[in-house]
Design brief:
The structure holds 2 protein chains of 2 kinds. Chain A is of the alpha+beta class. Helix content of chain A is about 30%, strand content about 30%. In chain A, the strands form 5 sheets. In chain A, strands 4-5-10-6-7 form a 5-stranded antiparallel beta sheet. Helices cover about 25% and strands about 25% of the residues of chain B. Classes of the chains: A alpha+beta, B alpha+beta.
């Protein structure tokens, strides 16, 4: 459980970091929070010749919120994002998801952008990026490009980063007005990777459910985004509660869209079953949050 | 006199251990060379060639060693520690593979380098050519016998063990009712947070060896090293430093590394250290629990168990270095607090191409308890009786002690329960958990759309097995009392409880007592820490030694104070005449007087030189049958084990949609005789229950068909976190043991034993699906609910 030898770089500016990354190319790996990378190195599952530690790079640890989105810098810790009230006000799904990411000590060190770049299909934040129709800003010595969530996640533990590139930030847009959200999951132990997790957003317009979407983790190679609007059409809001929406039908629709695999913790059929159960629960919770009389509490978690 | 024995005194070691001042194996030997091992990636293979060419250029490499480098006794197979007449085909591994490997993780080559990074780099560059052989994975494959683990053993059976009492066949034939069923229990493991580790220093001038090992038995590790490295035991010191948990796996000895690291230290004349990493612990140490059980029970219409016929296949992995202790314990402790008229347990202990199986906390008892307690539930179910009532009708009664079960226990002695009050224990658990009112709880929950269930499981645990332990108590001239015992500590609180015993016996303040364990320099004869035996064995030994020291102190003081021994008492470290505190002398003074010296180098010695006046000039300075010093060494060796007992009850809630199990309540009634320290006993129970919950709901060793362990990390091997462990409600019953001076029984394993049985009972009660395999995950429950062909009577709910 000791990593093979590597050259350690500790650049202090973004230009310097990008310079090193350009120089080392395929042999380089960015180290941010290290919560996934360091165990992988220790178990010798990967052996990059160069580690580029970006923790000293100025300006990357920000959580910037404006009226329409939250932008998270490459070294902002999960905890920074989770506890940021302004971010919660604009995009509550961030906090709703982050409270399920591992444990506080891991969130204190691990970074939101790092977990996106790690592209673990069980990583909660991949679904958040997908459901918010977010994007990442990928930067290299020769410039920057913005990549949508759908293009960013390529496969399990694989994103579209090329040699010499790093993710500089991730942007999570706000949902349309009248939208409520929820993130729920079933994990074997508190803080474990989920057997199945659902991020849901329900939009209520003029007293009726106008849109319902969900994104799933742990049931496919990349976060799966499903539009469930058709299944819940007819749901109406009365007295601050949504009634008449067939959340279970949405669950069945979602089940028809997934093809989960079995592993040592779960059969495929149990995962598919959870997709149905959790979809219904997450949509109902999101709809309750969307109902017009519902005021968003600015609670501080942790 | 202040009462110290029996008080919930805060653990004295915790301040040190919780503030980073513990001294664990890897805190030692900062400049030692580091070892790493090349381990087999195959479950079963011949080793054709080991090519080190590519590794030789690594800077910092000191040496690479394979089987061919070993000689003398070290080149022989490792010892089979505990032979048994029925273990007719025992096999052990070599310290390094001798041409064949039989499980993933078996060591093939040892690398020594300047640090562990170098050693792992080298290990990664050693090319081993294997000829893979088909592996035997799982009990079913082993039982089939198509493939063999050891090619000279045609049926994969190491031992066929039989325990019986009464005429099972006749009783079964005559029984009005019978039930037959099969159960399986998965593998789990001790999984201490600190893995194994060995650090050795060779003194070439003195031809002596000092070895530190994270072990549960330093004296036996010393004996093994002396034998295998052909050293006089007097030239080998073995010390167990602070040890971060053992739970059974560290009682196995000698581990290959415990021989190879000292051997390398001597060979190189350098300090060498090896610290196991987590993956190594998963694939190279030991597991436990895996069994298949076929059970047939005959019972009458009142639910009384007439005959119990149990057939067990026990998975012991690739080798049997620790003998068949685990299946022996299963077969004997299965009976619990009950008295079937006839009982038969036949066990085949089977080879598989997996990591060896040796005792893990509970050591075969959880499996036995699972067999018996699920039988009780089946009987209750079939007869429509309350599960507590069926148990009540089968209990051994208080006036039946000592109760002879008619079997032979793990120590080779008759299985005779010394004491207990099982009906009272059952009454207490029913009251504690609210068993008799549970239907109200169930209907209230149902009204809220919640599904709850309650379960119960009872056990009897043989504790404090012999053959012996010793204790040494010495009063220094300063008045400080040094206590040592040979067995080791892994966090149990020995520094506290042994001090409590000695402080009470001797009459000194607790703060004056200093306890040392597991250091062969201090105490050479010992067995080890396992089988819930430390308090019973060493506790009584140090008590006996303290009583002897007290007697000597009173004798010397009586001499000095010119009074009768009977007139003296020792209070807070001062020997005084009863009722006359002015006639007194400190125990430190008695210590000084106990050792007449020639030389005076300090005030205390000045008071004791041969020229100090003695009351009677005609007596020799040291009497003929006396010896200098206020100290004593004594041993405790019991005729047989003490039997602790207890009953657990759990209330669970099942989310019918997600199939998740939540433990709402967990209640424990526990009887380990007189309590030395109730707080420490509670801590033992809490930790045990946590491991019981792990075994019931979470922990599995996932081997694939190739014998690869798929979850060899803390990410995928699911030990419960604190968040998964419920609040534990406890009540104590104290039935003293008549077998030892302190009237105590062991408490170390109690908490874990009934966990699986209790939670299976509760889940079954909640859902009405039959639970016959443990652990049970949400995915398992989902599949059971989808397919269970045999809904129990409770299934209608």
């Amino acid at each position: 459980m000791k990593p093979p030898a590597f050259t350690y770089h500790a650049p202090e500016s973004l230009d310097e970091a990008l310079g090193v990354l350009a120089e080392v190319g395929e042999d380089g790996k960015v180290l941010a929070g290290g919560q996934s990378l360091v165990p992988i190195l220790n178990m010798r599952l990967a052996a990059p010749a160069h580690l580029v530690d970006i923790n000293r790079v100025a300006g990357l640890s920000t959580v910037d919120t404006n009226d329409t989105s939250v932008t998270v810098g490459a070294t902002a810790r999960h905890t920074d994002v989770e506890l940021d009230d302004a971010a919660y006000g604009v995009q509550p799904l961030l906090r709703q998801a982050l409270r399920l990411v591992a444990h506080p000590v891991i969130r204190n060190r691990g970074t939101t952008v790092g977990s996106l770049a790690h592209a673990d299909p069980a990583g909660e934040m991949t679904a958040v990026l997908a459901l918010t129709r977010g994007s990442v800003r990928i930067t290299s010595g020769s410039g920057s490009r913005n990549v949508d969530a759908t293009d960013f996640f390529v496969g399990p533990l694989e994103c579209c980063l090329r040699a010499g590139e790093m993710v500089e930030s991730a942007t999570f847009p706000a949902f349309p007005a009248g939208t409520g959200s929820a993130f729920i999951e079933v994990a074997r132990r508190h803080g474990d990777y989920a057997l199945c997790g659902v991020a849901a957003a329900v939009t209520v317009l003029d007293g009726a459910v106008s849109a319902a979407r969900a994104a799933y983790i742990s049931v496919g190679p990349t976060p799966l985004l499903v539009d469930l609007t058709d299944a819940v059409a007819g749901g109406a809001v009365s007295g601050g509660a949504v009634s008449g929406a067939d959340w279970a039908a949405a669950g069945r629709l979602a089940q028809s869209q997934v093809s989960p695999e079995a592993d040592i913790h779960s059969t495929a059929s149990y995962r598919r079953h959870l997709v149905g159960v959790l979809t219904a629960r997450a949509l109902a919770e999101a709809a309750a949050a969307a109902a017009p009389t519902h005021s968003l509490p600015l609670r501080r978690s942790g | 006199m202040t009462q110290i024995f029996g008080e919930p005194i805060t653990r004295r070691e915790d301040a040190r251990l919780t503030t980073g001042r513990g001294r664990f194996l890897d805190d030692l030997g900062r400049h030692a060379l580091a070892a790493a091992f090349v381990r087999s990636p195959h479950a079963h293979a011949r080793v054709r060639e080991i090519d080190v060419t590519a590794a030789l250029d690594v800077e910092g490499l000191i040496g690479i060693y394979t089987y061919d480098d070993l000689d003398g006794p070290l080149a022989e197979p490792l010892p089979l520690l505990i032979p048994h007449p029925t273990l007719t085909a025992g096999r052990t591994a070599y310290p390094l593979a001798n041409g064949i490997v039989r499980h993933v993780g078996e060591p093939i080559a040892m690398v020594v380098g300047t640090d562990r990074y170098v050693a792992e780099d080298v290990a990664g560059l050693i090319e081993v050519t294997y000829e893979p052989l088909p592996p035997v994975v799982g009990l079913t494959a082993s039982r089939d016998g198509d493939l063999l683990v050891h090619d000279d053993l045609p049926d994969n059976v190491a031992a066929h063990l039989m325990q019986q009492t009464g005429d099972v066949d006749a009783e079964l034939a005559a029984a009005p009712n019978t039930v037959t069923f099969t159960q399986t229990i998965e593998r789990s493991a001790s999984m201490p947070l600190e893995g194994r580790g060995v650090y050795a220093r060779w003194d070439a001038q003195d031809d002596s060896l000092r070895v530190y090992s994270s072990t549960q038995t330093s004296t036996s590790v010393r004996a093994a090293i002396a034998a295998k490295l052909e050293l006089s035991p007097g030239k080998v010191e073995v010390i167990a430093p602070d040890v971060g948990g053992g739970f059974g796996v560290k009682i196995v000895h000698p581990w290959p590394e415990e021989l190879l690291i000292p051997w390398a230290a001597r060979l190189l004349d350098r300090e060498v250290k090896w610290v196991e990493d987590r993956r190594e612990h998963f694939i190279s140490s030991a597991h436990e629990r895996g069994q298949i059980q076929d059970i047939t029970a005959g019972y009458d219409d009142e639910g009384r168990l007439l005959a119990l016929d149990v057939r067990i296949w026990h998975d012991h992995g690739a080798y049997t270095p620790y003998g068949i202790i685990v299946p022996i314990i299963t077969s004997t402790q299965l009976l619990g607090p009950y008295k079937p008229r006839a009982y038969r347990c036949a066990i085949d202990s089977m080879y598989t191409n997996t990591v060896i199986v040796t005792p893990y906390r509970g050591a075969g008892r959880p499996q036995g308890c699972f067999a018996m307690e699920r039988t009780m539930d089946r009987i209750a179910d079939a007869l429509g009786l309350d599960r507590a009532v069926v148990r009540e009708r089968n209990l051994i009664q208080p006036d039946e002690f000592p109760y002879d079960q008619g079997l032979t226990f793990q120590d080779g002695r008759p299985l005779i329960y010394d004491s207990g009050d099982y009906p009272e224990s059952l009454r207490m658990i029913r009251e504690l958990v609210g068993w008799d009112d549970f239907e109200t709880v169930r209907s209230q929950a149902a009204a809220e759309g919640r599904t709850v269930g309650i379960g119960m499981a009872c056990y009897v645990e043989g504790t404090g097995v012999g053959p012996y332990e010793g204790g040494h108590v010495q009063v220094e001239n300063s008045g400080r009392v040094l206590v040592s015992t040979g067995l080791t500590s892994q966090g149990q609180g020995h520094e506290t409880v042994f001090a409590q015993i000695v402080a009470q016996e001797l009459g000194v303040p607790l703060d004056d007592v200093v306890v040392t364990t597991g250091d062969t320099r201090r105490f050479g004869y010992a067995v080890g820490t396992f089988a819930s035996r430390a308090a019973v064995m060493s506790g009584n030994a140090v008590a006996l030694a303290a009583r002897n020291v007290r007697a000597k102190a009173l004798r010397i003081a009586a001499d000095a104070l010119e009074c009768s021994v009977d007139d003296l008492d020792i209070i807070d470290g001062v020997v005084q005449v009863k009722g006359d505190p002015s006639a007194a002398m400190a125990l430190s003074t008695v210590a000084v007087l106990s050792n007449p010296l020639r030389y005076a180098f300090d005030n205390a010695a000045r008071a004791a030189t041969q020229f100090a006046p003695r009351a009677d000039p005609l007596r020799a300075p040291v009497d003929e049958d006396d010896e200098p010093g206020l100290e004593n060494r004594d041993y405790y060796s019991p005729i047989r084990s003490t039997f602790a007992s207890g009953m657990h009850s759990a209330v669970v809630e099942i989310d019918r949609d997600t199939c998740e199990t939540k433990i709402l309540r967990y209640a424990v009634v526990h009887d380990c005789g007189n309590l030395i320290n109730p707080m420490i006993v509670e801590g033992q129970i809490h930790g045990g229950v946590a491991q019981g919950v792990g075994g019931a709901l979470y922990e599995v060793m996932h081997y694939d068909e190739h014998g690869q362990l798929l979850n060899a990390s803390f990410m995928d091997f699911l030990m419960p976190y604190a968040t998964e462990i419920p609040h534990i409600e406890t009540a104590h019953l104290q039935t003293p043991s008549p077998l030892n001076p302190l009237g105590i029984k062991g408490a170390g394993e109690a908490g874990v034993i009934p966990g699986s049985a209790c939670l299976a009972s509760a889940i079954e009660d909640a859902l009405g699906v039959r639970i016959s395999a443990m652990p049970v995950s949400p995915s398992d429950l989902f599949e059971l609910l989808a397919t269970d062909p045999e809904r129990t009577r409770r299934g209608s709910r």
